[in-house]
Write a structure and sequence with these properties.
This protein is an all-beta fold and about 450 residues long. The protein has 3 domains: about 170 residues, Jelly Rolls (Sandwich); about 160 residues, Jelly Rolls (Sandwich), CATH 2.60.120; about 80 residues, Immunoglobulins (Immunoglobulin-like). It is about 0% helix and about 45% strand. The strands form 7 sheets. Strands 5-4-3-6-11-8-9 form a 7-stranded antiparallel beta sheet, with no helix packed on it. Strands 1, 23, 24, 26, 30 and 32 form a 6-stranded mixed beta sheet that branches. Strands 14, 17, 18, 20, 21 and 22 form a 6-stranded mixed beta sheet that branches. It is elongated, with a radius of gyration of 34 Å.
Length: about 450
Amino acid sequence: MKPQTKSIARIQSRMGRLIFVGVLALIATIRVQADPIPGLFNTGVDANRVALPAGAVDPHYIMTINIDSGSSDAFVHIEGFPISPNGPWVANTAISKWISPRADTTGAAGGDYTYQLTFDLTNFDPTTASITGNWATDNGGVDILINGISTGNANTIQFTAYTPFSITNGFIDGLNTIDFEVNNASVGWTGLRVELSGTATPFIPTAPGLSTQPVSLCVGLGADATFSVTAFGNPAPTYQWRKNGTGIGAATSASFTISPVASGDAGGYDVVVTNPSGSITSLVATLTVGVALVNPSFEADTFTVFPGYVRDNGPITGWNALGGHGINPTADGSSPFADNGTIPDGKQVAFMQDGGALSQTISNFAAGADYYVQYFENGRSSDVSPAFLAVTIDDGVNPTLTIVPAHSVPSVGDSNPYIRVTSDTFTASAASLTLSFVKSSPQGGDATAAGRGSG
């Protein structure tokens, strides 16, 4: 079998112990049936949806492009020609009327005009919004835009009958705009007529909550440390990360990375998650900064020859390895450990198929200080025999110290997670020590251990 070692080899000064907290959260987004979208009005009506008199300014539609006068006012067109029954335009009704850049467009300038209506989807799910309706134009209806984006709805019938339209995407949270683009082919009559309605599913405002908490990290000096949470709430919450209770500038997303970690970064980190319905503060995650290792998480190298043996690809940066040790996955993504679960803290693991030590000599220990090692492990086996893995510390003078006794690394089979292992605490006997991961198969057979450094 193959114990996989995502070596941690992050050796930490004994500044604190990791505390693991399991959190179970039930997240429910409450939905009700679709409601009418507020703020959608037909052309030529007042706030009560009653038809306005001729010459009145439409209170809902504005002109963002008016080649005739430049005014933003859209007027209810006068009765008579060209409106039916005196002309070819669709007849006015009690629920909508023609609007135009002036009340009488007999001499209106030829060119492009844009009429805009604003509506609000606050507390609605914009992905569920839809608007349907009919429009008539003199002359051509060039396009309908949602929030400045074309919907591809053109009006080719123009003014003698309605052209239907339907819009089902492009909506956003909060204020939205719908623009009706009209082209007047030459000097003379021009106008717009719209009847529309829409629906969207409302959200019930909910206070923020956390479904995952930040996890305490133990990293080597100069490495990266990332804290993250998963939050829910409506509207979507904001984030403010803190160190020892003090806000961190620009740390305002669901994750926060310190790169590279310095000794002064050690401390307690939490995040305050807020929306208008309330706020919640995460658990405190402790960052412990330890002795720096070279390539502690095996990301420095890219091996190209499958299955990633050192003997076929070259050494592992920073580590003394045997020919039957290696890195997975290889450059093309192939990996015997692809079904061993999600690799923690990165994309690669070191594996040990040959029996023997994967080791690194580490400097900058404070003699007499207490330390411990953390790493992730799991295993793979071609038969019934498990791999065994031990972790040792050696100063080259005194007897080798075993800080993780030899133990069976079970074959995961598929999809099982890597297991975080924390060593016994040891007292540094010198400033330079050799850390070794020692793989054996005392029961015989072919077995592999794989592992990764904690982060």
